[in-house]
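Q: Two folds, back to back.
A: First:
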Amino acid sequence: MVFKGRAHKFGRDVDTDVIIPARYLNTTDAQELAAHCMEDIDPGFVKRVQPGDIIVAGENFGCGSSREQAPVAIKGAGVACVVAASFARIFYRNAINIGLPILVCAGVAAETGNGDVIEVNLDEGLVRNETRDKSYQADRFPEFMQELVAAGGLMNHVKQRMGLK
């Protein structure tokens, strides 16, 4: 899987409360959640983000509560992939479960600016900042996890395997 888009850069310790504030958790609608994605940390995010864009962040992205709505909001906003130096474990699992590609890659956030064009190759674990002509090697995204993401998440993957979809 390869993704290419503009970078939206965030720092370290971006918690689920700023990814999708608790006041919007009265819905499960992905588009409604997406309309409020990142608004407490970057009020203009939803106006700037385009389908296929990539979030680049520092350490501990997705820390805080275990709300599954955080990756749902990001995916619903059109973000193709999140690249961070590290992820909170529950966010990492929730992202895979709903089919949001994520990649752990140290060093990318420090050398990426908002709007840089980023290409992410999950098969090879390669992140390339085309704007700055820099490449970063991360751990390759495991094949079974790529299957989950390609299916649109864990539930869709199970339905496909059972012949229900």
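A: Second:
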Amino acid sequence: MSKQPEVRVNERIRVPQVRVIGDDGQQVGVVPVREALALAQSRGLDLVEVSPTARPPVCRIMDYGKFKYEQNRRARKAKKKQHQMQLKEIKMRPKIDDHDYEFKLQHARTFLLARDKVKVTVTFRGREIAHQDIGYKLIQKVIGALADVSLVESTPRSEGRTITTVLMPKAPKTGIKDHKPGAAPEAKPGAAEARPRIEAGTKE
């Protein structure tokens, strides 16, 4: 990974002249670097090189410590906004009752809407392992119930005494409205006038 170039501050700025911007944002002009450094120190601030490739380099008088703090705070805030996708797990039994099924299904939906993946696991105990078809049917039922918010990343498969599948959240909608099945098509302008009109009192 390439490192960002280090910002030169105060005595680390080793060029004959610099263009200076004051702490109020106003142009001071091109001055010897020693004079610029003395000006910054007289105000209890730092001389910070903000454009090293310019000729001469551009420096700004500022509180460098405060500047770094604000820069780091913005970086942390931006990092918090970036959602790191996690893998959540929902466990079920092949003979799960309706209430428990709906409760866990709602949890899975919540995770998917929060942009996390969901691993659905059906666990068998004892002789239940002889009826894996029940577990596969339950997995398919979950997949169908969550099809509006998820895609199957890992197809259902048997692992020892469990059957698992992994669902991933669907991409957000683009906002384009789809035509709903069964909806009446929009009437075209002038369609109602296409039929011949019979004048009152005339005979066909």
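Q: And?
A: The chain has four helices and eight strands.
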